[in-house]
Amino acid sequence: MRLLAFAIGSLIASFSPAPAIARDGAPLVLAAASLQESMTAAADAWAAKGHVRPVISFAASSALARQVQAGGRADLFASADEEWMNVLERDGLLAARTRSAFLGNRLVVIAPAGRGGHVTARTLGATLSAGPLAMADTDSVPAGKYGKAALERLGAWAMVAPHVVRAENVRAALALVERGAAPYGIVYATDAKASPRVRVAGLFPAASHPPITYPLARLKSSTSAEAEGFRRYLLSPEGKAIFRRFGFSTR
Fold first, then answer.
1. Residue 106 — φ and ψ, nearest 5°?
2. Which single residue of 79, 157, 167, 234 has CA 20 to 30 Å from 137?
3. Which long-range contacts (CB under 8 A, 24 or more apart) does 87-95 make?
């Protein structure tokens, strides 16, 4: 068990992203970890139009919001839930009239690609309590909070809670399942789609947790002349089409 705990801790630590630094007037975008492939593709598409390519820092929405609260400079924030955006709005850290509903997602149970079986609402508690369950932190990270809410609503949280391995963000939870450190994990549907090393073992009913929504806003600390243009591009039909390609719903 001690070896397993060490392995899990090493996997989580190895996933911790280094802070991004914007250069040459590039917008600095703070984006939820689940947006890695899609936001990167959007930044590439924006740069292909002749704009300076945005620099993107991916992490848990909670960590990014706290970074802004602590005075960290950035231009745009894309959160995986409304609550962390509400925190920044309450603190007066958003540029006026730039907050917009952006994307939607679904919550799933994943297993390693070679592992069979399907998880249903009836078998959820017994199945997920059989071994370590990888989840983003259930107290602060959106994916973890959505997952805990769903497990509570379906009557499985009390059974599952002692077996939860809390990762710092949803991609760290995904990595635990990819590498065999946990037989199951709870992540977004888009995370599962991004990895050939896992499969969807179960889909949570949408009504079992608060709606998964991603708001987008420009920050009051923004200094890049390109930031507002990129924000508008992300919300445009062309920009939203990029995110739909990666499995997100759009608002």
1. -125, 160
2. 234
3. 88/217, 88/219, 89/217, 92/220, 93/68, 93/69, 93/219, 93/220, 93/221, 94/217, 94/218, 94/219, 94/220, 95/217, 95/218, 95/219, 95/220, 95/222
- Kindly report the length of the chain: 251
| Residue 7 maps to a domain | no
93 located within any domain: yes
Could you give the CA distance from residue 6 to residue 184 in angstroms, rounded to a whole number? 18
> Does 3 fall in a domain?
no
pLDDT digits (tens, 9 = 90+) for 39-59: 999 999 999 999 999 999 999
Alpha-carbon distance of 110 to 203, in angstroms, equals 9
Whether pTM > 0.85 for this model: the answer is: yes
- Residue 10: CB atoms within 10 A of its CB come to 12
Residues 6+ apart with CB under 8 A from 3: none
Question: How many Cβ atoms sit within 10 Å of the Cβ of residue 126?
Answer: 12
- CATH classification at residue 25: 3.40.190.10
117 has pLDDT over 90:
no
Based on the fold, state whether residues 191 and 237 are members of the same structural domain: no
The Cα 117–Cα 154 span in angstroms is 19
> Which one-letter DSSP state was computed for residue 235?
H
Helical spans, DSSP H, in the chain: 2-15, 36-48, 61-69, 82-90, 124-128, 142-153, 157-160, 170-178, 189-194, 227-235, 237-245
d(CA 156, CA 129): 9
